[in-house]
Amino acid sequence: MASMQQAIFTVLIIASGLYQDAEAVTHIVGGATGPGWTFQANDLTFYDTWASKESFNVGDVLVFNFNSTLHDVLEVSTDDLKTCTTPASPIQRNLTSNGSLTISTSGTHAYICGVPQHCTFGMKMTITTVGASTPNTNSTNPAGSKAAVGAIKSPFFTFNLLLGVMLTAIAVATV
Ligand SMILES: [Cu+2]
């Protein structure tokens, strides 16, 4: 009996673990009561400072609140961010106000406003996902494996939860 209860406990722990991992967090860039995505000419590292206090995971969503007649947001390479270069084909782009971009891989991600000169006035931010050791955008191994794991978690969560409930019911019935 003890071993069965142990097994049930294990299943429930796994199910709850999957639930927490699958839960995506929405981050309001610059803070919920912050300035949104705009010029930071007096503090060029404003968004990096904000990001350093946040925990980012794959699947999380970044919400960039901005005036879409003035700004946009692009995900670019870290090299493009360093030189404030607006690439012709950014990794991701959102031109709408409240533009959100999803963190789809582990590692480091760089964001800029694509309007000329805006990056140099502080509209730039670099983030790194939790647990990513190398500050390198194209570290294929951790990025690939983590993304793959993330993709299969959600559909399996329901299955695992149901399995846990079922096993608990069986345990209650047989005790
Ligand atoms: Cu801008």
From TrEMBL:
Single GO term (MF): metal ion binding
Transmembrane segments: none
Highest rank taxon of the organism: Eukaryota
One annotated Gene Ontology cellular component of this protein: plasma membrane
Annotated keywords: Copper, Disulfide bond, Glycoprotein, Metal-binding, Signal
Pfam families for this protein: Cu_bind_like (PF02298)
Cited InterPro entries: BlueCu_1_BS, Cupredoxin, Phytocyanin-like, Phytocyanin_dom
Record domain Phytocyanin: where: 25-131
Signal sequence residues: 1-24
Protein name, entry field: Phytocyanin domain-containing protein
Organism of derivation: Marchantia polymorpha subsp. ruderalis
